[in-house]
Amino acid sequence: MSGAAQDAASRRRRAQSQPLAGGRFLLVLGLVLLAMALLAGRVVYLQVIDRHFLQNQGDARTLRVEPIPAHRGMITDRHGEPLAISTPVVSLWANPQELPEDPIQRLGLARALGWEPDALDERLERYASREFMYLRRQVTPAEAQRILDLEVPGVYGRDEYKRYYPAGEVAAQLVGVTDVDDQGQEGVELAFNGYLTGTPGQRRVLKDRRGRLVRDLALLREQRPGGTLALSIDQRLQYMAYRELKAAVTEHEAQGGVLVMLDARTGEVLAMANQPSYNPNNRAGLDPRGLRNQAIVDVFEPGSVMKPLAMAAILSSGEVTRDTVVDTSPGWMRIDRFTIRDIRNYGELDLSGILEKSSNIGMSRLALELEPEAIADQYRRLGLGQSPETGFPGEATGRLPAPVRWSRSERAALAYGYGLSTSALQLASAYTAIANDGVRLPPSLLRLDEPPVGEPAIDPEVAATLLELLESSVGAYSGGRRAQVEGYRVGGKTGTVRKTGADGYRENAYRSVFAGVAPISDPRIVTVVMIDQPSAGDFYGGAVAAPVFSRVTGNALRLLDVPPDAEP
């Protein structure tokens, strides 16, 4: 083809391609304009039509509704002295999925927490699929801030409260404890958990992407602290009672002991001490026995301290007077294949002598002259075999056998304190009837604004006679003479009880008991002391428990400003 022909063909191809090129340009331009229109429409839609959705999504990533912790109510003694208070603490937690992989940051965090780096890595691996794990619970705000200042991503703090017990081991079993979540687990903390627990509040806050607080926006609901609970105990008497009880348990190498002191006019518990005990502020190495409030939840055969209470039934029968004489010779008697003994042959004894010498023979012979149910009925009127109704968790009811074909030996045993069981609190409550003109006062762990209405349990004249008999039972030549208090007239009864085991009564295992009233002229306090299995030699109630009563009662009367009533 010649050159002219080639040029002509080229011009024809260019002429044919020009419409195609112009079409492609218009197509691209149209697509660009369409895309811009779609984008503009989307912007308008999001900013105008669907703007609330965007705002909500933004708020969801920056606004938070956080709880405001409410502190638990305070527990105080009867004078307002704190026994349990709540202090602010911080619990540190982390989101394992946000924690950095940087080994330097993890090392710094582990050291701040007091952990080994391997321990932190192992814990993170265990919680890798979760978004929450605790690092440390309930540390001081200063310590928590020191760790938070490291600004490790994924580490946060939560405000909480921790319980603190100023009285420590002195009132541990009565006050009780809370768990790490501030819920009552033992004692009064458990019994009144609903009343003591506060109601958390809520607030709306603004946080940054790392979860740090930017600004408080609104208070949605105020927190309500728990109620304040005033117990009946007097912290001065509680410290003193605990000190004396602990010293006695140590001196006599005993397994434990309890002491209960009641207000003879109201039934309020002024002191309640237990051994062994524990420190509720530091429970490392805790002896589980120390958790039990033995004064309320444990029972024991009371022994001879029941004789004055059985004497109430004997005197109420009208067949016996204070001057009635009983022949206890020869110092033993056989009933229903059982032999009852006194320490020695006391011969003829009146009622005062029977209590002073703690004669089992005298009590048995008097009891067998009564109607079969007379003594058991008297015990029931004194609250034995029934719940004290203090509200304390696990309080014991004790055991009083039902009067179904009682044998003569069972009737006799009830008169000198065997064949039944009672708690120290029940025993002290029963003695309030002697101290309060025959009216038994229900025990109370809470401070009372008005004296309660008691239950008539003993004839007032009989109660007055029993007070005189109790005073003679701690006379100069009696087994209870170590219970005497200088300057005051006191009365009470000793008890020495053999402990039981799987095979019956155990050899050389005793409980030493004393129950008493003071002062006799105008009773103010009733105190029960029980020392469990003393093993340093002495084990009689008059030698082990009575001296504790003397020291505690003397100190209590002086602390309460009770004027002396004994002649010099």
Could you describe the 3D structure shown?
The chain is of the alpha+beta class. Helix content is 36%, strand content 21%. The chain contains 18 helices and 19 strands. The strands form 6 sheets. Strands 2, 3, 4, 5 and 8 form a 5-stranded mixed β-sheet that branches. The protein has a 5-stranded antiparallel β-sheet with strand order 10-9-19-18-17, with helices on both faces. Helix 9 (235-251) runs antiparallel to helix 18 (541-559) and helix 11 packs across helix 14 (374-381). It is elongated, with a radius of gyration of 40 Å. The model has no long low-confidence stretch (mean pLDDT 88).
TL;DR?
This protein has helices spanning 3-49, 51-62, 103-113, 117-126, 141-148, 172-175, 187-191, 193-196, 235-251, 294-297, 307-316, 351-357, 360-367, 374-381, 408-415, 424-435, 460-472, 541-559; strands at residues 63-68, 75-76, 82-94, 133-139, 155-164, 201-207, 213-221, 229-230, 256-263, 269-275, 326-327, 332-335, 338-341, 348-349, 439-440, 455-456, 491-501, 504-518, 525-532.
